[in-house]
Amino acid sequence: MTPYHKILGINENASKDEIKSAYRSLAKKFHPDINKSIGAEEVFVRITEAYEYLMFENKQNVASTSRAQKEYKERMYKQWVRNNQSTASEKGRQHANMKYKEYKKTVVDEAPLLFYGFKLMGCLTTATLLLIVMFIIMSFNPELGQVFVLLFIPLAALIMTVGEKHIKIKDVLRWFK
Is residue 105 part of a domain? Predict the structure, then answer.
């Protein structure tokens, strides 16, 4: 178990959602804007550093069952420490210097929304392009256009469903405020 698992208070096999949940809970508790105790800022920096590392490690998607895999994870940890620890610490310091309300808005609320917003825009763009292609085909060959319409409707529904799984209507409406 890495020290970062201990910092966030999670087990070594914690999922991405468990890591995020532990981070958000501790970040709220130790953010210097909320917690005025002497060591709160340093604790907050360490929490952010742990979160950054564990999310990086999670992306590597390495199971820790065999000895070779454990050695690989240890090498990955050391590599991450060499390459990214100072960046993660700096990020933690930047977040610590933000007002909690600003931190929560940018880091906790809007970061996932940004990714899914691009995904939704991609789905809408694809559906629009398919619609344009359908009208072009119908203008040249109406019979082929009818076949395309029959294929377009389920395809458009599928594309929109993929985008819908991650976006809530209230989130989309927030973009326009």
Answer: no
Question: Containing domain of residue 59, as a range?
Answer: 3-98
Q: Are 143 and 93 in contact (CB under 8 A)?
A: no
Let me know how long the chain is. Answer: 177
pLDDT tens column, 132-170: 887 888 788 888 877 777 777 777 666 666 554 455 555
Residue type, 119: K
pTM, entire model: 0.42
Minimal CA–CA distance to 95: which of 53, 58, 46?
Answer: 46
Spatial separation of the C-alpha atoms in residues 5 and 94, rounded to whole Å: 22
- Domain presence at residue 103: no
- 36, with CB counted inside 10 A (0-12, 13-18, 19+), is exposed
CA distance 80 to 74: 10
Residue type, 151: L
Please list the alpha-helical segments (H only) found in the chain: 3-8, 16-30, 40-60, 67-97, 100-103, 110-140, 142-164, 169-175
User: Cα–Cα distance between 85 and 114 in angstroms, integer?
Assistant: 25
Are 140 and 56 found together in one domain? no
What phi and psi, each to the nearest 5 degrees, are found at residue 170? -60, -30
